[in-house]
Amino acid sequence: MVRLDSVTKRYGRGTAAVTALDDVSVTIPAGTFTAVMGPSGSGKSTFLHCAAGLDRPTSGRVSLGSRRTELSALSETELTLVRRQRIGFVFQDFNLLPSLTVRQNVTLPLRLAHRRTDKARLAHSLARVGLSDRAGHLPAQLSGGQQQRVAIARALITGPEVVFADEPTGALDTVRAQEILSLLRRTVDDTGQTTVMVTHDPVAASYADAVVFLADGRIAEITGTLPAGRIAERMAHLGTWA
Ligand code: ADP
C-alpha cells in the first residue's frame, strides 16, 4: 500500500509561493488500481512525484509497502534504491531507450539492480504484454501502443510493490489507449499489482477501483469505480471550483 499523511508541497517562497498539495492524506490499499484525477494545475503530478519518491514533500509523510518504509526518512541513495527496486514507472511518452531492443529495455531495471535475468520471467513478461515476437526489435520499429506495452513490461519486471503510471494513454489514440488500460486492469486483477494512475481522462479513470479527485491541491472526493460519464460530470464541477 501507499500512504500519504498530511502531505503538503509548496513551490517557491513568499508572495510567489504556490501550494501544489495542501494537507493531503490518503491510503491506497495493496492490490488495487487507483486513478488520481483532477483539472490541470490541481496537483496530480505533484501527488505522483511525492508518492513515488521522485520529489520530497514540504511537510507530511509518505510511506510505502507492507514494511511501511517512510520515504521522507531516507537518504537520496536509499530513495534511489527504493525507486529502482520497489516501484515501477510508466510515463506518457514511454521513455524507452532508443538504442536498446525490447528485451534490453524490459530487463534494464534488473541490470540496474544487479539482478540476473531469469529467461522464463522475461518470456512471461513479454507474453503478458503480447510482445513475445518483438523481443529483438528496437522501439522505433514499434507502434506507440506497443512501445507503451514494453514500458509496462519494464515497470513490472522487478515485481514492484507499486506501479505509478503518469497519463499512460496521453500519447495514444482511443483504441490503443483502451488496450493499455485493459492491460493495466488485467495485471491488477491477475497479479494483485498495486497500481496508481494519474490521468485527466474520465475514460481512463473508469478502469480503476477507486478515483481520487484533486482540486486546488486538496482531495475533493474519493469514489469507488464510476462510469466515465459520471467521472466527467464530477470533473466539470471540479473545474468550476478550481
Ligand atoms: P497537474 O498535474 O494537476 O496539472 P501540478 O502538480 O503540475 O498539477 O501543479 C500543481 C500546482 O503547482 C500548479 O499551480 C503548478 O503551477 C504548480 N507547480 C508545479 N510544479 C511547480 C514547480 N516546479 N515550481 C513552481 N510551481 C509548480
Question: Can you characterise this structure?
Answer:
This protein is an alpha/beta fold. The chain has one domain (2-241): Rossmann fold. It is built from eight helices and ten strands. It has helices at 44-51, 76-86, 102-112, 119-128, 144-156, 174-191, 202-205, 228-241, and strands at 2-11, 18-28, 33-37, 59-64, 69-70, 87-90, 162-166, 195-198, 210-215, 218-224. The strands form two sheets. The chain has a six-stranded mixed beta sheet, sandwiched between helices. A four-stranded antiparallel beta sheet has the order 2-1-4-5, covered by helices on one side. The longest helix is centred in the last third of the chain and has 18 residues, at 174-191. 39% of the residues are buried. The model has no long low-confidence stretch (mean pLDDT 95). Adenosine-5'-diphosphate is lined by residues 11-12, 18, 20, 38, 40-46.
